[in-house]
Specification:
Strand content: 35-45%
Strand order of the largest sheet: 1-2-3-4-5
Distance between the termini: 55 Å
Order of helices and strands: HEEEEEH
Structural class: alpha+beta
Largest sheet: 5 strands, antiparallel
Helix content: 25-40%
Length: about 110
């Protein structure tokens, strides 16, 4: 066996070891959603979360009616835009029939 073949086999073996370590690390990571700020007052819950690389959105949940709406910040126009909303009882019961997306841009 030549030195090049030995080096290739060593690189392949180390690639498999690194792939195995990566799989173990990824499988142990928690699968949770993280919100930057959460406020609950009376019947409403407000939270902010990063929805894209440079975009944060505001989620407003009405705890009485089980509905939520999503707003995004449009920095260029200095305003907050409604993205969409849904009936949470329908969403968590397996259907997405409650989604009414006024702008046509899904999340």
């Amino acid at each position: 066996m030549t030195r090049i073949e030995t080096a290739c086999f060593g690189l392949i073996a180390s690639a498999f070891i690194l792939a195995g370590l990566l799989i173990v690390q990824v499988s142990s990571m928690p699968n949770t959603a993280e919100a930057a700020m959460v406020i609950t007052k009376d019947h409403f819950t407000l939270l902010t979360a990063k929805t894209r690389n440079v975009e944060e959105s505001l989620f407003v949940i009405n705890n009485q009616t089980q509905r939520h709406v999503i707003y995004k910040l449009n920095v260029g126009q200095k305003r907050i835009e409604l993205v969409g909303g849904a009936d949470l009882t329908q969403v968590f019961n397996g259907g997405m029939g409650g989604v009414d997306n006024d702008r046509g841009s899904g999340r």
